[in-house]
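Why OpgC domain-containing protein? Reviewers of the renewal asked for a concrete example.
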Amino acid sequence: MAVDTGRRLWELDALRGLMLVLMTVTHLPTRLASPLGQPLGFVSAAEGFVLLSAFMAGMVYTARERREGGSAMSEAFLKRALKIYACQIALLVFLMTVIAVLGWITGQEAIDNLIGFYLDRPLAALLSGLLLIYSPPLLDILPIYIVFMLASPVLLLHGLHRGWGGILTVSVLLWFAAQFDLGLFVYETASAIAPIPVPFQQTGAFEIWGWQFLWVLGLWMGSAQADARPDTPPTVFPRWMVHTAIGIALIGFVWRHVIGQTPFPGQPQLAPLLDKWHLGPLRVFNFFALLVLAMHFAPFLRRHLPRLPVLETLGRASLPVFCAHLVLALLALALVGDAQAPGRRWWIDALILGLSFPILYGVAWISGELDRRVAERRAQRRRHRPAAAAAAVSAPRS
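Here is what the prediction returned.
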């Protein structure tokens, strides 16, 4: 029996809202970005946000496929991908116009570093940005989401009707290859066929071949949730697994906060083990430990933790809030520069944070209101259709 997707899972919305808060704190140029980045270990908010987004997609679109068929599901994925693409293009144009001009006026070195390729080759940057090839820092997350959304109908249909074993196996193999720079190999191979005017370093920091693993995993988990019966008991992990997860999580937490953001000082050859951009193996272990603990203690936390409507509101409007937080981060960089700039006063950091979060909540609230009104209009149209059809049938013929 498919899950009723009309009922929002508030705990997932709250978690996504929490991930958005953590990403905002990390991306805003304040002194809190480094100490509050990766607060639970060598795992960032990005990993949690990708998995949660894939889980929600798998759950919602699986239910849609069960109700309306594969074509309707694929069409819904395409519409979502186009919406994300429109957001990416809007952010790119904002960066190349407003932020570029503000950076030139204020002379902020941080902006010059951010859009250096665009300043050197504006036309190539614009055209390749429209094709999602050029992905400057901060704007390199949505392009991989678009690719994931476009690939998801094929993955879901295969998984729903032929099983997930093969998909998960291929996904793990691609993740493994990503640890040896599969993305660079693909880029160089494509460049040999048709020269790419964008340097590899400007195509985005995220190794898509590694991060696809989290998306596929979340898609599979969400699909399984959609097909689960309402009386299905929660997942129960063996005691040894829970204890192991606690140990790994504690080691990661202490390591992160004692050693710092650089896990292997003076030993750069070990850095790939915990690399964020390639989703290194030790980072995956740390993430899985936190995932096991979150799933194990979820029933207890759901019963005892108070609900935080603010986080739920942010999580329900994840795409507009995500875009808004990037706009705020770019504006802050253009106006006041990097957090490490000499002479930066604490009140500037407080002002950035104090303005940003109310704005994000306002964006989320407005988005929620617009969605509610659209849903009401659709419901009214559905109610009017049977009445109109009945009136047409009963009308006398001349």
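The chain has one domain: 10-377. This is the kind of structural detail the renewal will allow us to pursue systematically.
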